[in-house]
Amino acid sequence: MLIQLLVSLAIGAVCGYVANTIMKGNSKGILWNALLGIVGGLVGGFLGNLIGIGGGWVSSIILAIAGSCLVVWLVRKIAK
């Protein structure tokens, strides 16, 4: 159980970095990217469940990246 949580957090951190790169964001550090990835993974997983996508590692990673991009976009809109 603990190993799965740590792996999920690590994958979320990598997805946050990828999303920051895709969105051409100003990297505020590894912790910020990790936070965006974790929150984005939750958002992407929630939205994926709503529309019936998910179940595998690949789809989870894609949803986490898409959710992270959405979170980055929302943070930029709110910060303006």
Task: Describe the fold and architecture.
The protein has 80 residues and is mainly alpha-helical. The chain has one domain. It contains 3 helices and no strands. The protein has helices at residues 2-22, 30-51, 57-79. α1 (2-22) crosses α3 (57-79) and α2 packs across α3.
Provide a concise account of the structure shown.
82% of the residues lie in helices and 0% in strands.
Query: What number of structural domains do the residues give?
Result: 1
Rg computed from alpha carbons, rounded to a whole number of angstroms: 12 Å
- The CA-CA distance between the termini, in Å, is 40 Å
* Strand-pairing-aware structural class: mainly alpha
H/E order of the elements? HHH
Identify the notable features of this structure and list them briefly:
80 residues, mainly alpha
Fold blueprint:
Elements: H1 2-22, H2 30-51, H3 57-79
Helix pairs in contact: 1-2, 1-3, 2-3
